[in-house]
From TrEMBL:
Protein name: N-acetyl-alpha-D-glucosaminyl L-malate synthase BshA
Gene Ontology terms describing biological process: bacillithiol biosynthetic process
Source organism of the structure: Eiseniibacteriota bacterium
An example Gene Ontology molecular-function term: glycosyltransferase activity
Gene giving rise to this polypeptide: bshA
Residue ranges annotated for the Glycosyltransferase subfamily 4-like N-terminal domain, each copy included: 12-177
């Protein structure tokens, strides 16, 4: 099967899922074409069956804001014509699904099927804006197949846009052989913490909805009870406010600001606890990666997180903004080695049993087959890793 994938190439859950999906499909023998304005950040090395097509922007004096969406649509049509694509998989309804629809109208040699995966903010933020709501609805309605990463997001989409069309829930996935508590020794814990100290971790794009200052507040409370360090991975609007708060609370010297990292699996392998106090989180890919690495999660009960995190088993869920409660649970868990070990083991088991990459990729293949009207042949057999070994 020949598949086009268009997504945002930057750090973020949707880009990660789209890129990892494409690479896994390529491993199974499918031909995959990525189309975006930059190389997806997890697509760093040559891989058989994977091609990247860069969207070139037109510089013209009349364009105060270069029309990326039109350039993308033109590139999608070009790639579809040259490679006779079977499916164009758009990650985000706006702008990618709409651009895929426009590309199909102008493409000459193919009438590919459009599959759209909804990730969250395209519905709850962009799609909820009155200006973009009609266009978002149009992109969803014109797609031949639509998936959402959680039941919560499917319900929100159907309610916000008053849709009665089917939306398939296919959750995000994780490679448990890569996100493992064992690690490869390239990132020892001693690089970040002294002997006896615990490592608390947060990874995000530092948008306001991620509530990074809350992470700092939680850590400050934990640090008063448990010798610990905080690793913050990512960058974005809330980085400066969070740094100022850390100075104000007197915990800056115990915080490492690691910026954007591609190989986040190395950092997960040294962490003892993952903090995710988000206001908006349709799934929580970083939380899943933490669980796969055997790292319990303290998170908010927002949106899709209760579908992933089992309260009291793989971590704890508390109300958005409940800094005191999250700090209390974090302190309790980091102070009880037996409870931490049990929760760590359960976290990894739940991640492997429900979200292992070898279980989820066939769900996409089966969905493509339904959209195309015939079963998808897997060119090469897939052998998932023995992640529990």
């Amino acid at each position: 099967m020949k598949i086009g994938i268009t997504c945002y190439p930057t750090h973020g859950g949707s880009g990660v899922v789209a890129t990892e999906l494409g690479m896994e499909l390529a491993k199974r023998g499918h031909e995959v074409h990525f189309i975006s304005y930059a190389l997806p950040f997890r697509l760093k090395e040559f891989q058989e069956n994977v091609v990247f097509h860069e969207v070139q922007m037109l510089s013209y004096p009349l364009f105060q804001y270069p029309p990326y969406t039109l350039a993308l649509a033109a590139k999608l049509a070009e790639v579809a014509d040259e490679n006779h694509l079977d499916v164009m998989h758009a990650h985000y309804a706006i702008p990618h699904a709409v651009c895929a629809y426009l590309a199909r109208q102008v493409a000459r040699s193919s009438r590919f099927k459009i599959v759209t995966t909804l990730h969250g903010t395209d519905i709850t933020l962009v799609g909820g804006d009155p200006l973009f709501r009609p266009l978002t609805r149009f992109g969803i309605e014109q797609s031949d197949g639509v998936t959402a990463v959680s039941k919560y997001l499917r319900q929100q989409t159907q309610e916000v846009f008053e849709l009665d069309r089917p939306i398939e829930v296919i959750p995000n996935f994780v490679d448990s052989a890569k996100f493992t508590p064992l690690g490869d020794g390239s990132c020892p814990k001693e690089r970040f913490a002294r002997k006896g100290e615990r490592v608390v971790l947060h990874i995000s794009n530092f948008r306001v909805s991620k509530r990074v200052p809350d992470v700092v507040r939680i850590f400050a409370a934990v640090r008063r009870e448990v010798p610990s360090r905080l690793l913050l991975v990512g960058d974005g609007p809330d980085r400066v406010p969070a740094r100022e708060l850390a100075d104000e609370l007197g915990v800056s010297k115990w915080i490492r600001w690691l910026g954007q990292l591609d190989a986040v699996e190395d950092v997960f392998s040294v962490a003892d606890l993952f903090i995710l106090p988000s206001k908006n989180e349709s799934f929580g890919l970083a939380a899943l990666e933490a669980m796969s690495a055997g790292v319990p999660v303290i998170a908010s009960s927002a949106e899709g997180l209760p579908e992933l995190i089992r309260n009291g088993e793989t971590g704890y869920l508390l109300s958005v903004g409940d800094v005191e409660g999250m700090a209390r649970r974090a302190t309790e868990l980091l102070s009880d080695a037996k409870k931490h070990a049990a929760m760590s083991e359960t976290s990894r088991r739940v991640a492997i049993e429900n979200y292992e990459v070898g279980k989820i990729i066939p769900m996409y293949e089966e969905f493509y087959g339904r959209v195309l009207g015939h079963p998808v042949r897997v060119p090469q057999p897939y052998s998932p890793p023995d992640a529990l070994a």
